[in-house]
Automatic annotation (TrEMBL):
Homology family: Belongs to the ROK (NagC/XylR) family.
Database matches in PROSITE patterns: ROK
Protein name: Xylose repressor
InterPro entries: ATPase_NBD, ROK, ROK_cs, WH-like_DNA-bd_sf, WH_DNA-bd_sf
Residues that span the membrane, as ranges: none
Highest taxon above the source species: Bacteria
SUPFAM superfamilies: Actin-like ATPase domain, Winged helix' DNA-binding domain
Pfam families for this protein: ROK
Cited PANTHER family: BIFUNCTIONAL UDP-N-ACETYLGLUCOSAMINE 2-EPIMERASE_N-ACETYLMANNOSAMINE KINASE (PTHR18964:SF149), ROK (REPRESSOR, ORF, KINASE) FAMILY (PTHR18964)
Amino acid sequence: MTTRSTELLRVVHRSPGVTRADAARLLGVGTGAATELVTKLSRAELLIQGPAAPSGARGRPTTVLLPHPDGPLVLAVAITHETWRVEAVQLGGTCAAEVEGRHAGAAWPQVRSAVRGAIGELRRQYGPRLRATGVSVPGTVSRDLRLDAVGAGWHDVDLTTLCPDTDVFVAGNDATLAATAESRRGAATDASVALHLRIESGLGGAVVEDGRPVIGARGAAGEFGHMPFGDPAVRCPCGARGCWGIAVDGQALARLLDEPAPLDSFSYARRVLASAARSAEPELSAVRTVAATLGRGIAGLVNGLDADLVTLGGLGADLLAAVPAEIGAAYRDGLMSIHRESPPPIVPAALGDHGPIAGAAEEAWSALLPRLA
Ligand SMILES: [Zn+2]
């Protein structure tokens, strides 16, 4: 397929419902050439043309470009420490169907068979329309698609066995994928250097510069949770002392509350936040302590990276909603004076808990688009 056809699909993927005239302008082609491309892609059942919603303006009716209702789909899979979810996603990012379940910290073979069962269910429904697979996982993913998720006890796992009969398979770390999604469709679309941080079981994230995440030489970049912004008296499962991630998550709240380490760190943290929202003590004090540690660390990263926007996902977004003043005060205190005049905003991730799976779908679509005939 020609580059221009791929480019047009990319435009419709980014902005489903774009007018044909705007798409032609974005591609830098004339009206005739655009019509020809659209006709070709409609025949290939990739796009359809529809009338635009009436704008009230006079003139010729406008034509908009939309994903074909029987067009290709990608499978997007998100596995967390507690749950899994599989979606069939259209061009343009709309979810056509989903299957989900809980695994509550199961061993990898059990999680894999649950996910494979869900993929099989969607395959029976959509058959050959499913053309690519993108997977989000809570750990580091090597360039040969092997997963290490220390917190979950999954080591050197071959991710391609999740979906052996797919031509196009991509996988990545959940926080990195959430960062990508946030830059393409979320709160960071206008940022030049966006820092995304996601707290779930531990803390991960990514720096996205001009829409591209920095993934590192071995695919392990973004492990900001293991920077020493935490308590030097506490040893992290990674082997280091003073890690930031274990000072801002459910484990940190449990330590502050003198409670045993929770198995479901994320759900536990949300329960503590709910108590803090009713001004219950000592929960509120624990939440404030964690929030200040979060704000101080974000300042350190903004100083180091010169990001112009920070998005928070997972528990980070919940903390920002619950105790914004504590995060903000510690953040401003930690910023260099050059940033303090107009501190880069800290905002909740627009895609919320959907970020990692949305990023998995985005990467699957990016890999598939050039291959569509
Ligand atoms: Zn660590």
